[in-house]
């Protein structure tokens, strides 16, 4: 009976394409640190809360770090590794260079956790918890973060360059990029809603400001004023022009008005297969919130290292 049950369970996972099972068959669980580090959630929450009070944008940056970690060979803290003599890490890969941020915040959280429960909590799990806490602080939904990921002992600049989607992609390329991670187009649309917070550089939206036709003309003009044809690569603009530090559904409402900041954003509402979902989330933020939570859990389940694979890094920037 038990055997039949677990067989059935396995079948359900395989059929639904959920990758909740790690590379070595161990599942992540919200209770992973219950006995080994009961304070983990309160320590991360307090730290994220204090940091965001000073700088709300950091919530966006932390959320994005988890995404960029998970898309490159699984949620294994690889993005946090500095370059060393063995490999060139992910920090200078095009999608991250001069763009990904929040590494110091992760270091500070790790230092606190090393005091409370040495060598127990992985850097990959810190990213997953900080992403959730950031979302909550800025007014978004909450979810139970599954834990038990271990940290990689390697990182790959090339993999980061290839696997993290670029803002010039069209809808079919975005769908393919997410599918390669076991994520659906529903996940793509909901997770893109993370662009309700945070900033992008002129380098990321220049082509949209000058070359796209599915853009509100006044919006395009205002982007062009700040983001010249050449230079000014690092001038920033809010991904959600109306409420850049509130996690809400204005991202989707902007898309309905052709005011998505990135080309990839507007691709989600450009007479294609994802229009219906964008309209749904624009009309009903609770539907967006529900799907965002689900999709974040799914993204957090991408190929975790569990069991004896990987390690619990002591310093998130370095292999032990
Ligand atoms: C769908 C494909 C995606 C593309 C093409 C994309 C692309 C980008 C780009 C180009 C930026 C601006 C970077 C810069 O100019 O420095 C950005 C920022 C951001 N992205 Fe995405 N992204 C995608 C999906 C996601 C997902 C799934 C999440 C999280 C669940 C996310 C969260 C963020 C956040 C929060 C920011 C702002 C970060 C900050 O202010 O520090 N993005 N994204
Ligand atoms: C990263 O950015 C720096 C400038 O801050 C630049 O010198 C360097 O060439 C960039 N690296 C890559 C790999 O693009
Ligand atoms: C989307 O982009 C890919 C890769 O650049 C290209 O091969 C494809 O034709 C594009 N699809 C559409 C519908 O434009």
Automatic annotation (TrEMBL):
Keyword Glycoprotein attributed: yes
Keywords (alphabetical) are:
Calcium, Disulfide bond, Glycoprotein, Heme, Hydrogen peroxide, Iron, Metal-binding, Oxidoreductase, Peroxidase, Secreted, Signal
Keyword Methyltransferase on this protein? no
Q: Cite the binding residues for heme b.
A: 195
Q: Which InterPro entries match?
A: Haem_peroxidase, Haem_peroxidase_sf, Peroxidase_pln, Peroxidases_AS, Peroxidases_heam-ligand_BS, Secretory_peroxidase
Q: What is its EC number?
A: 1.11.1.7
Indicate what this protein is called per its UniProt record. Peroxidase
The species is Hibiscus trionum
């Amino acid at each position: 009976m038990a055997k039949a049950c677990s067989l059935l369970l396995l079948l359900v996972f395989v059929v639904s394409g959920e990758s909740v099972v790690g590379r070595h068959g161990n599942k992540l669980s919200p209770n992973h640190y219950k006995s080994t580090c009961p304070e983990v959630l309160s320590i991360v929450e307090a730290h994220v809360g204090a940091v965001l009070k000073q700088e709300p944008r950091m919530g966006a940056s932390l959320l994005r770090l988890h995404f960029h970690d998970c898309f490159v060979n699984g949620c294994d803290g690889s993005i946090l590794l500095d370059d060393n003599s063995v490999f060139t890490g992910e920090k200078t890969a095009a999608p991250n260079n001069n763009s990904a941020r929040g590494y110091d915040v992760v270091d500070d959280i790790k230092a606190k956790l090393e005091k409370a429960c040495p060598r127990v909590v992985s850097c990959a799990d810190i990213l997953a918890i900080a992403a959730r806490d950031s979302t909550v602080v800025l007014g978004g939904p909450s979810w139970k973060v599954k834990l038990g990921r271990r940290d990689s002992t390697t990182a790959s600049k090339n993999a980061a360059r290839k696997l993290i989607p670029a803002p010039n992609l069209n809808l079919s390329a975005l769908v393919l990029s997410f599918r390669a991670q076991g994520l659906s187009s529903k996940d793509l649309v909901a997770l893109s809603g993370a662009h309700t917070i945070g900033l992008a550089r002129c380098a990321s939206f220049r082509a949209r400001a000058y070359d796209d036709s599915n853009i509100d003309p006044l919006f395009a003009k205002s982007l062009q004023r700040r983001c010249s044809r050449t230079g000014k690569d690092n001038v920033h603009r809010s991904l959600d022009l109306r409420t850049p530090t509130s996690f809400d559904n204005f991202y989707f409402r902007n898309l309905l008005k052709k005011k998505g900041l990135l080309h990839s954003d507007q691709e989600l509402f450009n007479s294609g297969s994802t229009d219906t979902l964008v309209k749904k989330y624009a009309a009903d933020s609770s539907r967006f919130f529900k799907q965002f939570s689900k999709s974040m859990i799914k993204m957090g389940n991408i190929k975790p290292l569990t069991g004896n694979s990987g390690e619990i890094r002591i310093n998130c920037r370095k292999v032990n």
